[in-house]
User: Fold these one by one.
Assistant:
Number 1:
Amino acid sequence: MALPQHLRISQSENGDYWPGFVDALATLLLVIIFLLAVFTAGQFALSQALTGRDEQLAELNARLSTLAEELNLARSENERLTLRVGQLTQENQALEERNLALSSELEQVSARLAAVSEDLAEEEALSEEAQATIALLNNQMAALRQELARLNEALEASEAREAELESQIVNLGERLNAALASQVARLAQYRSEFFGRLIEILGNRTGVRVVGDRFVFETDVLFPSGSAELSQAGRQSLQPIADAIIQLTTEIPDDIEWVIRVDGHTDVVPLGPNAPFDSNWELSTARALSVVEAFIDMGVPPARLMAAGFGEYHPIAEGRDPASLARNRRIELKLTDR
């Protein structure tokens, strides 16, 4: 198809530029391809170089690890050798000290050997005197043996006498025990007779009773309240007992040791502030002494009497009722051995 006239005119005026444009693009494309080829080749070369360096670096790291291990081993060996050197040094010092000690000991032994040699020479010079001394010692030893034999004989005789004396002592002990048992039995018999006589004398008197092996008097029968002075009625109550004790002294043989023990007891009620005694203990002791003094006044030998006070610490009745308190306020008489 034919171009319009104005287009053909324009194309002819501007010239044909497409071939040049195509040539320029082709040239640019070749340059780009060349650059890509160069870049690819450079990348490949660089990659090869880096790969070689990585291998060298890995090899160097492995070598470095090996050298580090060898260095550690060398250090350990060095420390071990250093320690061994120290030990050997100490052993060497110890050996040197031991050598010095042995040298000193050798010198001392040499000195002692010299002294012994001198002593031996002196002993050889004194051998005759030593023999005479030995003979004298032998004679003395023989005499001592004879003396020892005599002493053994005397010891055997003494042991025999000691055995005989021990047998006599045993016999005396048995006889003494038998005598004591006999005296105790006789005293028990007299005690029984004495208490039987007192029971007959006192009868069923109020305030007097037998408790075991003791005669018990309620102190209300003998003393006013809080006082240690015997009442007239109390003295009259004690007179038959004193007569019985006096008769008892004529009946019991002199070889039997006996006493009438007078024990004073009180109740637990404390004394008043105006009481003549500081405690019930003092009151009980004073009452026992008053009874003993009354017996002495009535003719009882003082050697056959003994007084003791126990306060409120040995009651025979529990409770704080009037009857129990009255029973605990008492004087006890007991015939016992001295």
Number 2:
Amino acid sequence: MHKKYRHLSRDERGKIMYLSMWGKKASQIAVLLGRHKSTISRELCRNVSPYWDHYTDESAQLKADRRRKQASQRYRLKNERIRSYVERKLEDGWSPEIIAGRIKLDLPGCTISHEAIYQYVYHLDKPERDKYIGYLRRSHRRRRKRGTGKAQRKSRIPNRISIDNRPVAVERRRQFGHWEGDSLVSSRNSVALYSLVERKTRLLQLERVRRRDSKRTARAVIKRLGPLMRTPMAASVGTSPRAPILLN
């Protein structure tokens, strides 16, 4: 297993300065500090003070801090062709996910991930950042960290039986009379379609529901399955907390 790299500390840089002034070589300093020889050699080469013409810990620390800051602000999408394509498609209303999937067809040989596009947008300087954030479907001024969304709601149905526990005959579609119900909900209003699918025959029943609540959903199910209820039937429902439990 590879060891995790540790940046040189201010104290270590002070020791490097004094040891180098005493004539110690990079390999000797590396042994004394418990560091790799290449780490010390690189430190001595790129952090020479422009004023004193030799290594100083203060100058080295300032340069290291500047490099670390610039690394966190590194400009994304350096490829001009890809950047122009991404910006144009964002202005056309495309999501980063669609752009990432389509660019391979429109620009053969070019690839970009949707995550890189989000990083590019959220690291632009104002007013460009606000402009392109406005093109995103979810125009958050600050991007949420992964895994910090709303927790999944728990079902409110008491004594609920998981769909994973249904009999093998039902799972393999061997018996007629087992129905699956689900709501198709519009994001703009409360109107919904309630769908019922018989597992064996794939028979589909649809009923429009003005409001997605348990009473209206139950009436829709009774209306659609009433004529077919001569034999015992069962229905498995989705994860919606408002979905009714249907028994034989």
Number 3:
Amino acid sequence: MKVKYEKELNKVCLHIDLPQAYEEDYQIHMLKENNIPCLLDITGCGIDGRSRYSYTVTGMISMKTMFEESPIKRDDMILFVNNLMEAVKSLRRYMLNPDGLLLYPEFMFYSADTWHFCYLPARKRPLCEAFHVITEYFVKKLDYEETEGILLAYELHKASLQENYDLEKIMDEYREHEEKRRASMDTEMKAKTTYIPDEPLFTVDEEEYVQTPDVETIREMGGHLSPWKKAADKVKKGRWGKWKDLILETDGHQEEEPL
């Protein structure tokens, strides 16, 4: 199989050449006459006894180029798997064998939030084997700081090792597991935020009050506290019976404003 790109003024094509002679069977007819979701537009022809299949990839980026420098995250894998399942279901509706999908990073293209796949009519490799290869690619390109992405890649890779696995069922189980895991994390987070310890958060060491020299000096000198003390003594001894007398006695002895 030989692969090359051809660029024109307003169009980019991917050409795949196969050594066998070209035969235009019902597969090419179905692909040309129907707009199948998530599949690249395809044309086929014979050149010098060989087969050439051409795909329009204008304005798209291959998975290989997209993740050459940046890591793959959980949402990238979910979008890919969802688009793949959509393509497989559509192919079966048109009586086309999903084994014809080329699940290699070089032959899957991204555009407008959708992954597009090359369908090669002469393709013979089982889809399950091809999907296992792409899960290994995911594991190599993972963002290892994203826990959810690691869990998803692990589940996909583990499932692809089984015989006759159901990808749709695997994704349903993964979503159910994720919902439970997130609910558990939310519960733990709420428990942490509402936790009140039995022991006090802090203690206060009471200090013994020590009388300052200034207060003692004021008392000895008969300072501004003296009129209040004298008035109170008179009330206790019964010399005054009304509070207005107390007010008159202390009048003019208000505490001075601090400087």
